[in-house]
Specification:
Elements: E1 10-12, E2 15-17, E3 24-28, E4 35-40, H1 44-63, H2 66-82, H3 84-95, H4 99-119, E5 126-128, E6 135-142, E7 146-149, H5 155-169, E8 173-176, H6 182-194, E9 202-204, H7 209-217, E10 224-228, H8 231-244, E11 247-251, E12 256-260, H9 266-277, E13 288-294, H10 298-311, H11 330-345, E14 349-352, E15 367-370, H12 377-380, E16 387-393, H13 396-404, E17 411-415, H14 419-428, E18 433-436, E19 455-456, H15 461-466, E20 469-476
Parallel strand pairs: 7-8, 7-10, 8-9, 10-11, 12-13, 12-17, 13-16, 15-16, 17-18
Antiparallel strand pairs: 1-2, 3-4, 5-6, 6-20, 11-19, 14-15
Helix pairs in contact: 2-4, 2-5, 2-6, 3-4, 3-6, 4-5, 5-6, 9-10
Length: 489
């Protein structure tokens, strides 16, 4: 029997409880626009209880051995795999992506927990050579309680990156996921609780984003802020963090350039890029976004991409054979539609798609645009939707210069058969992650993060654990002894 959409509550101090705040959020199914649940917001008193709990558990959890913490995270990972079918269905209902993508997200989240479980046992320090009789040690320690904020596009993986890193390092955490996709994150917390995570170590709170963030970051118990969100939200939380002297990690989106040189198999590259671009209806921060195609290959590439886009099956993510679901909410669909309409009015050619689908749901057709350039907002701004803007370039220097001419610096892509070209361009691109002949930028073993307006700090890999640690230098000398010469009379 298929599980229904779960009841949504706050998870505070080891207890599931109804919110006690004044506001409510309605969780909608983006394929049908029908309500799934009403979420009552957290109250100030409940936030204070969560803050009190992380204060109480900070020392016991940091003193819990890495082996014990690892065992809890590994059990939670196993539970996610066992419950993958039901969690994936919840994810589709509230977020819209096709079921196969939701399954993959849950399983990757389990892999992330396994990675952090083992990496937490390898948070090594070092002993520095010094004078005889001294010991100079560098010891990694948990940074302290964490406040974390995650978005709606990947509710499972974006939350696990923060939960896994913090918990493996020995830090208690208060996580505020998006109120639009709370069901998936609630299942993560159920897995952690069922795996034996002590009450009070991890909390899930839902409510007004500005009010929750201001309340949490004003409390001196919070020593670390981790955000995955927009640049605008990042600026607001940065101000709060600076005032409170809180260390931050911020992943703030991107507008990744894709440089396609003339020596590639155009059809193969178009197919790979289309698969990546239309995943999650284009609502991916590290997805191929601005396509720079050498002028000798641009016509063939645009034709191939438009053909693939026109053939995709768009619909309810739970329906068999669906390759792309809806956008997650009405404001996202409306923003994408406005950018495409504006580009068309300014001279861009619509090669495929170009508009919303009739009927209920926040659907927008897979869209390919030609004759696009920096003058178009659909090219210069992060679209965060299923839109492919294509422009041309003549030489490598031009392509790199235009690719770097953006405030963003999260991901970038290079497609070429030349090792020399791949090496030069990957070194010259201003991005935190570069994919060469691949559309995959995120692995559990490698660091993920951006530069410039895309944020700072990294998640995943050993760097993802290190983000929740501080290094203490201990300079130990022999005991002091008195050396007093007595005078004579």
């Amino acid at each position: 029997m298929t599980a229904p959409y779960p009841a949504i509550r706050q998870y505070i101090a080891g207890e599931w409880q109804e919110g006690q705040g004044d506001g409510y959020t309605t969780v909608l199914n983006p394929s049908s626009e029908t309500p799934l649940a009403e979420v009552r917001h957290v109250s100030a008193a409940q936030l204070d209880r969560a803050l009190e709990a992380v204060r109480e558990t900070a020392r016991p959890w940091r003193r819990t051995s890495p082996t014990e913490r690892s065992a809890i995270l590994r059990r939670a990972a196993s539970l996610l795999r066992e419950r993958c079918g039901d969690i994936a269905r919840t994810l589709v209902l509230e977020q819209g992506k096709p079921l196969r993508e939701a399954h993959a997200e849950v399983l990757v989240s389990a892999d992330m927990l396994d990675w952090y479980a083992e990496e937490g046992r390898r948070a090594y320090g070092r002993v520095v050579p010094g004078e005889h009789g001294t010991r100079l040690s560098v010891i990694p320690e948990p940074i302290g309680p964490v406040a974390a904020f995650t978005p709606w596009n990947f509710p499972a993986t974006s939350s696990v990156r923060k939960l896994g890193g913090a918990l493996a390092a020995g830090c208690p955490i208060i996580l505020k996921p998006s109120e639009e996709t709370p069901g998936t994150v609630a299942e993560l917390f159920r897995a952690l609780a069922d795996a034996g995570l002590p009450p009070g170590v991890a909390h899930m709170v839902l409510g007004d984003p500005a009010g929750v963030s201001a309340h949490l970051l004003a409390d001196p118990v919070i020593r670390k802020l981790s955000l995955t969100g927009s640049a605008a939200v990042g600026r607001e939380l940065s101000h709060l963090a600076v005032e409170a002297n809180i260390v931050t990690t911020m992943e703030l989106g991107g507008n990744a350039p894709v440089l396609i040189f003339p020596d590639v198999s155009v059809e193969a590259v178009a197919e790979a890029c289309a698969k990546a671009k239309f995943r999650n209806a284009g609502q991916v921060c590290n997805v191929p976004s601005r396509f720079f195609v050498h002028e000798s290959a641009s016509a063939e590439f645009a034709e191939a991409f438009a053909s693939i886009a026109s053939g995709l099956r768009v619909g309810d993510g739970l329906a068999s054979g669906v390759e792309m679901g809806p956008l997650a909410n009405a404001r996202r669909r409306d923003a994408v539609e406005a950018m495409v309409d504006e580009a068309a009015e300014q001279g861009a050619r619509i090669l495929a798609g170009g508009g919303r689908l009739e009927g209920p749901g926040f659907f927008f057709t897979p869209t390919v645009l030609g004759d696009v350039g920096e003058r178009h907002r659909v090219f210069s701004d992060e679209v965060f939707g299923p839109v492919v803007p294509i422009t041309t370039f003549r030489d490598e220097d031009e392509a790199v210069q235009r690719a770097n001419d953006t405030d963003y610096g999260l991901g970038a892509f290079v497609f070429t058969e030349s090792l020399a070209t791949a090496t030069r361009v990957s070194e010259d691109l201003e991005a935190g992650v570069v994919g060469v002949n691949t559309t995959v930028l995120s692995r559990v073993e490698t660091p993920f993060g951006g530069v410039k307006a895309s944020g700072h700090g990294q998640e995943s890999g050993s760097e993802g654990l290190d983000a929740y640690l501080v290094r203490k230098a201990v300079l130990q000398h022999p005991p002091l002894t008195a050396n007093i010469t007595k005078g004579s009379t």
